[in-house]
Amino acid sequence: MENFRYLKPATLEDAISGKSEYGSRANFLLGGTDLLIAMDKGVVLPDAVIDLKGISELKYLEERDGAIYIGAAVTWTELLESELIKKYVPALWEAADLVASVGVRNTATLIGNICNAVPSLEGGAPLYVRNAVVFLEGKSGKREVVIQDFFTGVKRTVLGDDEMVTGLKIPVEAKFGEVYIKMGRYEGEDLAQAGVSVYVDGDNNYRIALSAVAITPVRAAKAEEFLKGKKLNPELAAEAAELALEAIAPISDIRSSKEYRIHMCRIMVKRGLAACVSRMETGLPALSTRLI
Amino acid sequence: MNHILKFNLNGDPVEVTVKSNEKLLDVLRDKLGAVSVKFGCGVAECGACTVLIDGLSVRSCITFAVEVEGKNVVTLEGLQADGPTKIQKAFIKHNAFQCGFCAPGFIVSATELISKNPSPSEEEMRHALAGNLCRCTGYQNIVNAMNEVAEDNRKGDK
After folding, report:
1. In CATH, what is the architecture of B86-157?
2. Is residue A289 a part of any domain in this protein?
3. Of 3.10.20.30, 3.30.70.20, 3.10.180.10, 3.40.350.10, which CATH number belongs to B2-75?
């Protein structure tokens, strides 16, 4: 690995001015669990690395004004240990519990996860079903982007060269059920072969998101429209699962064949629908129950 | 870019000159003699390089040394400074290693687990240790050792 300039600013302002100076030749560092590996492989060769861990403005996890706010420096472990996340964003909690391993979760962050933007990211589907809003800040100011518009391709996002993600917000819902299901080969540091999040609210509005089965996470709009306002039953769930498959375009790779991904997405959407409705009504299945 | 890095290693203040691109793993092993920390996969998948930073387990193979400025870093050498710990004794009793290469990482991860949850269930310990790989034991002996620690801590609570 080439040497680089290591910067550890104490304020957001300094971090952004550092990034503006270097542009695409600088990378932000939080947990570094993706960045260091990319640097080792020579895929990313920054002149400067800007460590954001010294910036207290990025370390918030709170409920206010009807939303949960998560700062960029919040780690997966901190999300897991948060009662707010468990109560208000349980699908994200379930995803956090399935990210890699304890030793990675202790430093890796949700914001780093979405900025790295690999298709198999754990943070994608749970944020998609909640219409999370991402906060971007750069030299020219601040802007907000809904999560569905944040990703533009494999490892690509709308972030400009001088911009960073400072955090995001997830609206608090009164009555809802949601779930995240990960298909992996084994526990501990395996990337998802496919991920599914399903959400339902008290008026039978459904949201379905799938990850690792297209270049970005996707929402299954046709399936959502089909189910809208209907009380779920197994036949509707089966039909919705077929419609959900129209939204995905999985590939075959070392982790799984395209056919297996499609087959399992069908099952995960069906079980996810049943589980989130049941969770809304009874609180069960308990968080982290393995549904596949 | 060179940095004069200061942090606490196993309770003692240390000062070492490092380059920005040096990994914590390499600095611990090559410059500070903490050779319990192992290079396994180099990509945070095997857990052999696990150390505690301010009490939390971290993969030193994907941590830059400069990131630990001012922090408390603990390796197996620090944990066993006063002789084998309860976890280590249980590992020895249950033959929880064969070649031993993964053992320091396992013991550091297990130490963090027990500090947060003194008597974990078998499911909880398997989940917490899922990021540490062992290619010899098949894990059962490690789980047996950890079950004994958990059981002993459970008795201690009564």
Report:
1. Orthogonal Bundle (1.10)
2. no
3. 3.10.20.30
Asked whether the predicted pLDDT for residue B24 surpasses 70, the reply is: yes
Angle between helical axes of B86-93 and B140-157 (0-180°, round to 10) = 130
Whether A106 and chain B come into contact, CB under 8 Å, resolves to yes
ipTM of the complex: 0.96
Average pLDDT over residues A248-269: 95
Condensed to tens digits (0 to 9), the pLDDT of residues B108-149 reads 999 999 999 999 999 999 999 999 999 998 899 999 999 999
How far away is chain B from the Cα of A186, in angstroms, using its nearest Cα?
Answer: 9
Sign of CA dihedral B87, B93, B94, B97: positive
A289 touches chain B (CB under 8 A): no
Task: Give the residue numbers spanning the domain of A264.
Answer: 177-282
Where does the pLDDT of residue A121 fall: very low under 50, low under 70, confident under 90, or very high at 90 and above? very high
**Is A3–B1 a contact, with Cβ atoms under 8 angstroms apart?**
yes
In sign, the C-alpha dihedral spanning B50, B53, B54, B57 is negative
User: Could you give the CA distance from residue A198 to residue A269 in angstroms, rounded to a whole number?
Assistant: 7
Which of B42, B50, B128 minimises the CB distance to A40? B42
Q: Which of A2, A32, A189 sits opposite B131 (nearest CB)?
A: A189
